[in-house]
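Crash report, auto-generated. Payload:
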Amino acid sequence: MHALVLMLLAADPTVAELLAKYDSIMGPAQFEAEATMTATREDGTARTYGMKFLKKDQDKFRLWFSEPAAVKGQEMLRNGDNLWIYIPNLKRATRVANRDNFQGGDFNNADVLRVNYQADYDGKLIDSDAPDAWCIELKAKSKETSYDSIKLWMRKSDFQPLKGQYFGTSGQMIRSATFTDHKEFEKGFTRPGRIVMQNELVKTRKSEMRTSRMTLKVDVPAQRFTQADLGK
Amino acid sequence: MALFKLAVRNLRRNQRRTAITLVAMVVGVTGMVGLRGFINGQQDVLLENIIKGRLGAVQVHRTGYVKNVLTSPLQLDMADTPELRGRLSAAPHVIGVSPRIEFGAMVSTPDKRPQPEDGSDLPEADQGKTSFFLATAIEPESESKVTPRRHGLINKGGRMLPSADAPELVLNDEFARGLEAPVHPAGAPMPPIEQQLALLAGDRDGALNGENMVLGGTLPSFSAGDKRIGVVPLAVAQRVLRMEGHVTEYALALDDYTQADAVRDGLKAKLGPDYEVHTWAELFPFIKSLTGTQDFIFSIITGVFFTVVLLGIVNAMLMTVLERTREIGTMLAVGMRRRQIIRLFLFEGVVIGTVGALLGLSVGLLLIAFTHSRGIPLPAPGANVESIVRPWVSGRFVVGVLLGTPLGAALATLWPAWRASRLRPVEALASA
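Recovered output after restart:
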């Protein structure tokens, strides 16, 4: 009997393993991707933003907006804990915060431009209400993270994220996400192709991120992740 | 009438007691009048700060704006036409019309020094900050008529926006201090763009946009809790929000803010169902409940005041009855009716009450006139604007005191009067 329990326990992945899996699926060490975000607002109108991503190393991101015309030419850059937005009007980059929302949608900047749950959160496995999924509870390590706590559901069979709930300082759920359309973007690399972020404070608001292309085999020049390269 | 004369004579007979009772009444009435006057003045300051410092007396929006879940929905905008402005300013009592846009914005401060050459991170203390605030976009010219108080309060060294298209903004002083943003001296050349502030905001469709700016001035807080606010030029805001020629709000100044309800009703009828009109009291219900609470507390305090004064009268009258037992006995013996005895004492109460009210009112009104012309400087809680309180009382209140005090005094005399009327003539005459 004891042996059986031990075996079952041994079969469970540790939280560290799960978080490492999540980070490697949602933010592989290096990639290039194209995506669109459709933000639906409380009055029912929606706007779609087109963008291109580039990522290198642990925490270097670059993002170019291609549409609509209002944001064309805007760029974002993350380097470590620094996050900048370049607005053509300003002719320079200004700093923005992790928790600020991403183009007026329901994702925040860190949701899109920082995937490093291993570094940002302490996790613990909790009882899952879905038999086929692991459920982890994450607590923020610092005040700089985008949420104070997160509940995350990951599929047992392949560790793909399925669902997330995101909580603010008061313990109130502020966002919830569903991860669907899991797709093998490249041989051996599968990730959700569609994430719907539901605003739990204003229920009529939600944003949908669709990844159309993603490749891990890219040659990324380091210079792309410097402030000087913004707007070029 | 004879009884009344008798009552006056009785009061004048024992001058010391009458004087003591009067002093108590005068102090009580003066205190009441003074307190009411002060509360009135203080409520005025509160209202002025809100109306002439922030809201305007009446506001016009697109229908649904005020009730919207978000505090400032940009979709509910209106074309800012001379025709619409004309219709608003043509309404009776309206002396100023100010177009505005309220929106959630961010202000981003520059890094204090350039990024280190070696690629290492700038220390956090030297990094620029981005903070949210509630921005009100205004045309300084029109706005100065609607919120002159805000215009007059710019801290030293700064200035209100010079024009509706100046690359300048005005922030709450504590907020600006938190951002470590210095005021840009008037007339000095603009700093290089990488050292300017950035005003960032999602445009009408939600896409982020921004403009470079400098801090033109800072404003003190009017009340607690309004730290993260700022004022920006309307034309600049319209560019950032991509809403050229559109506004979300008109704030109106009235020659008399107590006419706000009438102006609202008139405008509602004139503008039709596409627009909604609100008075300051509807936009800021907090102030109504605050003044309501104050009035309630005032009535409790005056109640206590009044009771103490009246108890003094009861006491003095009881003493009188005791002292004048033989006299009352005599009056009863010569055929005065018990009812008349009661009336006699009631008259004494009314006379002393009237004289007390008159004297107390005179002293109280003098005090109010004096403090009104001098003004009482008073720091409002949570705000760093010193407010000058100018006490006043309404005619209704004066009449109320004038009628209420003698009435109260008469009521207070009832019991002693009844006791006097119950005396038995024989026993009363025999008492020492």
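Post-recovery validation: The longest strand of chain A covers residues 173-186.
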